[in-house]
Amino acid sequence: MSGARPLAILGGTFDPIHHGHLRAAWEAAETLDAEVRLVPARTPPHRPPPVADAAGRVALLRAALSGQDRLGIDTRELDRDGPSYTVDTLASLRADIGPDRPLVLLVGSDAFAGLASWHLWQELFTFAHIGVLTRPGAAYEPSGALAGFVADRWAERVHGPAGSVIDIAITPLDIAATAIRESFAAGNEPRFLLPTACFDDEALLAPYRALGR
Ligand code: ATP
């Protein structure tokens, strides 16, 4: 591994953050011995708008991350206009950390399978490694253009600043924000799928509770 500790990012809507995200980020931090930042998206391309606004999702992230310092938040996508293209986020991070520090883009295996549909997807590898998180029930084997492109990029561990694909096995937790929103919409309290701290302040989950009214 080249000198500096890797920086890894996990992007997502986090609408809301839950233990699936948090365990994946935590286990990636331990496996890669990395600093991991959660990067909330402002305008996710091809998706309906989030239930909670950006400030609300960040407040939930802060509550969820309290009491530890291995996982952080990076709000740069919220400060940018337009769609949150990952390639722009990686370019911006690379400019911040310099050319040598390893940078890892963490993606679920389902997202990885569809990587070739991302904006300027091949350029992602010039800025970062891709860390593929194993998620239950998700397609894993890349196909088509992606399969050919990554065939000789698989690596056991982070080596150099960018360009590899690293498989990161994580404890399967079949939790999704969609199911959490559905639970709120049905008038339930989906406790223990997301941190207790998120329930401590009544206002934090109010946008989701409103789905049930
Ligand atoms: P939604 O149900 O609204 O689509 P989600 O729970 O899948 O949301 P996202 O914000 O879309 O959450 O996910 C952000 C990132 O976290 C993605 O890379 C996704 O693959 C990953 N992720 C989400 N849930 C899990 C989980 N249970 N285990 C591992 N990774 C996860």
What is the CA-atom radius of gyration, in angstroms?
17 Å
| Helix count, DSSP H or I runs of 4 or more residues | 9
The overall average pLDDT, rounded, is 93
Task: List how many beta strands DSSP finds.
Answer: 7
- Low-confidence stretches are none
Provide the CATH superfamily. Answer: HUPs
Helix content: 25-40%
- Report the portion of residues in β strands: 15-25%
**CATH topology name:** Rossmann fold
CATH class: Alpha Beta
List all distinct small molecules, including ions and cofactors, that are bound in this structure. Answer: adenosine-5'-triphosphate
Compute the separation of the termini in Å.
Answer: 52 Å
Number of domains: 1
Structural class: alpha/beta
- Series of H and E elements: EHEHEHEHHEHEEHHH
Briefly summarize what is shown:
By secondary structure, this protein is α/β, with parallel strands linked by helices.
